[in-house]
Design a protein that fits this description.
Blueprint: H1 2-30, H2 34-43, H3 50-68, H4 81-105, H5 107-126, H6 138-155, H7 159-166, H8 173-197, H9 203-226
């Protein structure tokens, strides 16, 4: 039994690190999807407790963003980012609160919501967003920020919402990617502060985060180094 438990722990760790590597590469290239990939595979297979996994994903996504944005801050879109942020911040608090309530009182409903999120989020990433004629106005941006902040607060994975919305904007991919990454930095920082204030940054969270940081740096470096091989249309 001891060896079986040890093997399962090792299997969980290896799977977690491989998924983190893939997610950090994809996010460095496309500007989103790291949290979605981690939550979908690790959370969907119940290899880790969801609140712990979401806290770890927040830390790792922030590290990915800080590294991926080096030298690209000038591409941030001033037209949509402030409005997205205005919607995101209050919704993050609601999302974290919902996660804690459901994790304590109704795990079955939480698992159903996670399944729906994974399914709909995956479908949204498979669809090619058709660019709209002009940049969305404040109301649309704030609304997208609210929905993104809500799922970001719950699952630390707002990529399907924010990615679909921003990739529909008639903007260069460089601006879309930078805007998404800075938006995720805002989400993950806010979420981490909220979880930390609630005592949710446990030893397990720090352990998994510490082991995954080198993997995130490798995946992000690979994404930055080989992003030029993709055309904007392919992106």
């Amino acid at each position: 039994m001891i060896y079986t438990a040890w093997f399962m722990d090792l299997l969980t760790l290896v799977a977690f690190l491989l998924i983190v590597l893939l997610g950090s590469y994809v996010q460095a290239v496309a500007g989103f999807a790291m949290g979605m990939i981690i939550i979908a595979v690790i959370g969907g297979t119940q290899l880790m407790d969801l609140p712990v996994l979401a806290a770890v994903a927040s830390f790792l996504s922030l590290i990915n963003v800080l590294f991926a944005m080096k030298g690209h801050w000038q591409h941030l879109s001033a037209a949509i980012f402030p409005w997205l942020a205005l919607g995101q911040i209050p919704a993050i608090f609601v999302g974290v609160w919902l996660l804690n309530v459901l994790n304590s009182d109704d795990r079955h409903l939480l698992e159903i919501l996670l399944g729906l999120f994974i399914t709909l989020g995956s479908l949204s990433m498979m669809l090619r967003p058709q660019p709209i004629a002009k940049v969305s106005g404040p109301v649309a941006c704030v609304s997208a920020g609210v929905v993104g902040g809500l799922v970001g607060g719950m699952f630390s994975a707002s990529g399907p919402v924010m990615g679909w919305f921003t990739y529909r904007q008639p903007l260069p991919v460089s601006q879309i990617r930078a805007t998404l990454l800075v938006g995720f930095a805002l989400t993950t920082t806010t979420r981490t502060l909220v979880v930390g204030a609630q005592g949710g940054l446990t030893a397990e969270v720090w352990l998994y985060t510490g082991m995954a940081i080198p993997v995130v740096l490798i995946g992000t470096w690979a994404g930055r180094s080989f992003v030029s091989t993709f055309s904007e249309q392919a992106m």
